[in-house]
Each structure stands twice: as structure tokens, then as C-alpha cells.
């Protein structure tokens, strides 16, 4: 690869792409393992990688001056001057067109979901990220639309409990992100997000407790099976402990005292970037692997018995 392209690729934030794996949630939860379904979900993954990168480029262009005084964001390609704002905006426009065109080829409904995601995120970049609470819902909507996109692309129905669970877990991650950002800005003595002035750690802790509890209950109700119009089998209750451990583990990693104890040894696990925790924390990784393997086993047994 041409080294001149490296800063542009970095500005597209490929390390954020694992978030888009959520498009596979619908076929996995539905225990549908047909190749065509997963191929269409893969197409949704590609479309969301492209559109999300376009949004990151736009956001970094809008925040370029603020990012330059941030302790870590100042090293980003645009903030550091490695990629110019006009070049980044042109790349963002190109990625948006390609994403929407590619999604439309799969199904117009997928293109509609991608477009809605793009509009909400543009609204977030321009206004919503400065509005307390609305910023959290805007962030969470991105995860929810990813899950919906996977179902729409594959032509699968979605359980209301499934949508509620994804939405609540996404809201939980958004709160954790703001909590970590608040802690980082206080330590650095510089507030790089206007909305952080409207938040306090006690408030975010209360919101975290409410949403974490609601997420776990919602997932448990979905896992209870067809009786509650949830999963196709109540054997999914076997996966509930993994979800509980995952929530506990994430809360431990983002706890202020735990972060202080770790100090600067693991800055990749401060909670500001959920994808970094997924990529770097063994506890979260083992929990996720256990959940996936258990779900696949249940799916295979359920499919064989059908």
C-alpha cells in the first residue's frame, strides 16, 4: 500500500469497524446459517464500514481545532495536519456515495437504513453532540441501526426484545464513553466537549446503573424464548451469565478507582473507546467468545432438532 495513503486510512478509523459486526447479530440470534443470508449481512457490514468512516472524517473536520488541544486526539491525521480538511471532506463524500449505492444494490431498505444512520450521525456532528442526553441517544441509535441493517439485508424479522436489548446496551456504552471522557478531561484540565460541562460523574453513574439493569433484564426476557416472543428457544437462557459477566467486567474497567489503580499502564482500557476494550481486554474477549460458542451450539442443536 502507498505510504501516502496511510494517514487517510487512519483518519477513516478502521479500528472502529468492529462495531459494525453488530450487523451479524440478527442472523446469529435467529439461528439462520444459510450462506446467502450471511453474504447479505456481510454486504451490510461493508456498507456500514464505509458510511461510518465518512462520518468519522466529517466529525474530525468539524472538530479539528478542538482536537488539536486534546491530549490524545491531537495525533489524529486531520488534527495533526497529515490530511487536509478539503481532502478529508472529499473522501467522506466519496465513501457516502459508494456506501449508499452498494446498499441499494442489496436492497433499497438497506440503503434507507444506511441513509438514516448517516443523517442522524451528521446531526450528531453538527448539533446533537452538544445536547446532554440527546447525544447519548444519538450514539446509541448508531448501534441499533447496525443491528436493524443486518436483519433488513438478510430479510429477517426482528424481535422487539432484541431491538430493546441492543438499544439499551448501546446506551450503556454511550454512557460509559461519556464517563471516561469526563474523567480524562478533568485529569487533563481541558474540556474538549461542550456537553461534558453538563454532565457530572454522579449523574452518569446513576444513568449507568439504570441502563445496565434494564439491559440485563431485557436480554433475559428475550432469552426466555418464544413464550415471551423472544428467542426461538429458551435454551438461550444459558447465555445470560455471559451477558451479566460482560456488563460487570466493563463496569470494572471503567470504574474511576480501577482506572486510577491501573494508571497509565493500560490507557487502551479507560472506557473512552469501547472498541479498544473489545480488542485489548482478555476478560471481555473470553466472555464474548464464550457467549458466541454457546449461542452457536444452541443454534446447531436447535437446527438439528427442527
Automatic annotation (TrEMBL):
InterPro entries hit by this protein: Prenyltransferase_related, UbiA_prenyltransferase, UbiA_sf
Membrane spanning residue stretches: 38-58, 79-104, 110-126, 133-152, 158-175, 234-252, 286-305
Subcellular location: Membrane
Pfam families: UbiA
Membrane topology: Multi-pass membrane protein
Principal localisation: membrane
Top-level division of the source organism's lineage: Bacteria
GO molecular function, one term: transferase activity, transferring alkyl or aryl (other than methyl) groups
Record GO cellular component, one term: membrane
Keyword annotations of the record: Membrane, Transferase, Transmembrane, Transmembrane helix
NCBIfam families in the cross-refs: PRK12324.1-4 (NF008978)
Protein name per the record: UbiA prenyltransferase
Amino acid at each position: 500500500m502507498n505510504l501516502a495513503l496511510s494517514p487517510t486510512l487512519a483518519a477513516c478509523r478502521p479500528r472502529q469497524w468492529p462495531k459494525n459486526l453488530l450487523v451479524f447479530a440478527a442472523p446469529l440470534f435467529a439461528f439462520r446459517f444459510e450462506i446467502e443470508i450471511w453474504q447479505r449481512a456481510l454486504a451490510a457490514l461493508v456498507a456500514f464500514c464505509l458510511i461510518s468512516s465518512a462520518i468519522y472524517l466529517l466529525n474530525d473536520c468539524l472538530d479539528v481545532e478542538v482536537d488539536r488541544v486534546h491530549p490524545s486526539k491531537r495525533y489524529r491525521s486531520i488534527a495533526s495536519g497529515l490530511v487536509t480538511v478539503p481532502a478529508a471532506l472529499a473522501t467522506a463524500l466519496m465513501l457516502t456515495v459508494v456506501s449508499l449505492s452498494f446498499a441499494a444494490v442489496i436492497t433499497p431498505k438497506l440503503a434507507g437504513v444506511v441513509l438514516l444512520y448517516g443523517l442522524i450521525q451528521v446531526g450528531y456532528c453538527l448539533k446533537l453532540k452538544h445536547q446532554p442526553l440527546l447525544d447519548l441517544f444519538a450514539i446509541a441509535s448508531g448501534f441499533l441501526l447496525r443491528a436493524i441493517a443486518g436483519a433488513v439485508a438478510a430479510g429477517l424479522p426482528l424481535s422487539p426484545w432484541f431491538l430493546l436489548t441492543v438499544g439499551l446496551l448501546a446506551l450503556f456504552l454511550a454512557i460509559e464513553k461519556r464517563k471516561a471522557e469526563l474523567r480524562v478531561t478533568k485529569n487533563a484540565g481541558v474540556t474538549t466537549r461542550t456537553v461534558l460541562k453538563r454532565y457530572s460523574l454522579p449523574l452518569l453513574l446513576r444513568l449507568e446503573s439504570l441502563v445496565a439493569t434494564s439491559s440485563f433484564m431485557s436480554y433475559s426476557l428475550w432469552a426466555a424464548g418464544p413464550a415471551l416472543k423472544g428467542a426461538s428457544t429458551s435454551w438461550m437462557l444459558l447465555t445470560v451469565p455471559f451477558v451479566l459477566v460482560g456488563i460487570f467486567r466493563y463496569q470494572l474497567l471503567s470504574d474511576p478507582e480501577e482506572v486510577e489503580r491501573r494508571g497509565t499502564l493500560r490507557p487502551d482500557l479507560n472506557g473512552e473507546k469501547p472498541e479498544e476494550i473489545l480488542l485489548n481486554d482478555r476478560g471481555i474477549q473470553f466472555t464474548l467468545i464464550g457467549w458466541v460458542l454457546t449461542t452457536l451450539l444452541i443454534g446447531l442443536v436447535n437446527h438439528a432438532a427442527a
